[in-house]
Amino acid sequence: MAVKSKVRRIGIITGGGDCPGLNAVIRGVTKPAQDYGMSVFGILDGFEGLVEGRARELKNEDVSGILARGGTILGSSNKGDPFHWPINKDGKIEIVDKSEAALKNYKAWNLDAIIAIGGDGTMHICKKLSDMGMNMIGVPKTIDNDLDATDLTFGHDSAVFVVSEALDRLHTTASSHHRVIVVEVMGRYAGWIALNGGIAGGADIILIPEIPYSWEKVYDKIFKRELMGKRFSLVCVSEGAKPLGGEMVVKGHDMKRHDPVRLGGIGEVVAAKIEENTGRETRVTVLGHLQRGGSPTPFDRILSTKFGAFAIELADARKFGRMVALKGNEIKNVRIEEAILKQKLVKPDTQAVRAAKAVGISFGE
Ligand code: F6P
User: Fold this and answer.
1) Residues within 6 Å of ligand 1 by CB
2) What is the CATH number of the domain that holds 207?
């Protein structure tokens, strides 16, 4: 029987947009690694560093004190896909394949495996690098919570916390001035941040991509609240929300990214429509990258630490091509293919939507 060689050297990479909890995972991987006799090599700026050969050794002292720190000490990028590498040719962006350079560095650094922390884009890259012969282990992160095959991604709870706190603050000013305040939140094509943040912050109306809304129902809800003596309303709108028969609001395109669409601007559209059609004074707050920055919540610190420590267990057991996943209260692992089969979107009859409706929140239906 062939003896499987021991894993001695692990690369770690943070891909895609950053989010709170990345450093907690890096710490969760690096601290236990030495007990397994492994060294950890931190690849810089996401997959850009893998292609360009930029990395540094990570020791215990490098990860000490980073549990609560936002961002990633390794740097990240959402433009460094080795299979979709943008180069500037005569002023034009051309896309080329740089995966051979990634493989060359993997070999030159003597890596036995790479732990890649990222969202759906990162998991697609992991799958392709696995197919080329690299030993990949995925750890799911994204504030959007749109990765299937895990009940939750770390980062989501921290984003929800920001939304909830913002709504609490906006409540007091909206009610003092008898205004409608529209809060635009992130999430791309999934409404999880708006749904969970909106429930936590007591929004009156939540608009998400999965439930196209009727403008009339949105105005109705504002008027109905007034009849109940509530002369203000809070609308939590997901950046990907769209009205019935309408489209998402696109801010621009970035051809260097795998998904070039950049969402943003729906908050202004919703506020203008409400003001025009109800005559009520309306304001907009776009939370933007506030939802991604800063310290992770305790929940995310715990989840990230569990994810990191479990990823090292998987590496030691040579379970490659797998993604760490939360299933109920247990940390499990799934095939990376499973994680990228489909996006996890909000089902319109999910319990959170039903509970929100039960307490009087309107989805503009
Ligand atoms: O996927 C995370 C996310 O924050 C989305 O919610 C948002 O649409 C996007 O990234 C913003 O990306 P960028 O940092 O490139 O503006």
Assistant:
1) 17, 78, 119, 142-144, 186-188, 239, 263, 292
2) 3.40.50.460
Give the number of domains in the chain.
Answer: 2
Per mean pLDDT, which range of 50-54, 74-78, 172-176, 296-300 is the poorest? 74-78
- Please identify, by atom number, the ligand 1 atom nearest to the C-alpha of residue 262: 8
How much is the pTM? 0.96
| pLDDT digit string, tens, across residues 21-77 | 999 999 999 999 999 999 999 999 999 999 999 999 999 999 999 999 999 999 999
Distance of CA 26 to the CA centre of its chain: 17
The DSSP secondary structure of 47-73, one letter per residue, reads: HHHHHHT-EEEE-HHHHTT-TT--S-T
Tallying the residues shown for the chain, one arrives at 365
Atom number of ligand 1 nearest to Cα 291: 4
Q: Which run of H or of E encompasses 285?
A: strand 282-286
What domain range is 266 assigned to?
Answer: 158-292+347-358
Q: Is 34 helix (H, G, I), strand (E, B) or coil?
A: helix
Active site residue 144: yes
Question: How does pLDDT run across 189-226, given as a tens digit for each residue?
Answer: 999 999 999 999 999 999 999 999 999 999 999 999 99
Percent of the chain surpassing pLDDT 90: 93
Residues contacting 239, CB < 8 A, separation 6+:
184, 185, 186, 187, 188, 248, 249, 263, 264, 266
Q: In the chain, where does DSSP find H-type helix? A: 22-33, 47-52, 60-63, 99-108, 120-131, 156-177, 192-200, 215-227, 266-278, 298-316, 336-339, 351-358
What is the Å distance from ligand 1's center to 17 Cα?
Answer: 6
The answer to whether residues 122 and 209 belong to one domain is no
Closest CA to 195 of 207, 184, 212: 207
The amino acid at 249: V
Burial bucket for residue 226 (CB in 10 Å: 0-12, 13-18, 19+)? middle
